[in-house]
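User: structure tokens for this one?
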Amino acid sequence: MTARDALQARLEQGIAELGLTVPAEAVPRLLDYQALLERWNAAYNLTAVRDPAEMITRHLLDSLAILPYVQGATLADLGTGPGLPGIPLAIVAPGREILLVDSNGKKVRFLREAIRALKLEGVRAVQSRVEDVQGQFDCITARAFASLADMLGWGGHLLAPGGIWLAMKGKRPDDELPGIPVGFEVRAFHELTVPGLQAERSLLVLGHRAVA
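Assistant:
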């Protein structure tokens, strides 16, 4: 069994444990993305995770765990880093317009190469601070890049009416809930189980507060 075969087995098992159905071509493309990230990471230090098997668990499966909650035709992934969760979501659920946002130039150069190499249609990367991004999106993802107060304070203008904000966290961030800006509310909370990962993972679903 080659190293890639072992990674593929781990990825396919994890996808099955998550209860997800993905397109047939998604698994090899996810592995191509992981390989590209591993290669660039050696020179550009894009992620602290070095081990390829750990990348499958901590990056790919961690990103895919939120797939059942993603909705809408447009998505912005804020503080995406090397494309997490945006690129895995684009690979397994194509057809959505996705904007990847990060302020780090090295990471955005990697994102643009990944979009080109993986032929990700409808996916764009922009180097910007979140507060300077324009547009509105049906779904916003943010993977533990800031507190809820800062996330929504910087990026709340990007959430379309009726849209949802998916905030990926470790343990449930109860201490951050009082800081949620006026005009937003928690719609749901989900504890996530990421196959192979011992650490806690949680997802807060937020939206615009309904006007009484």
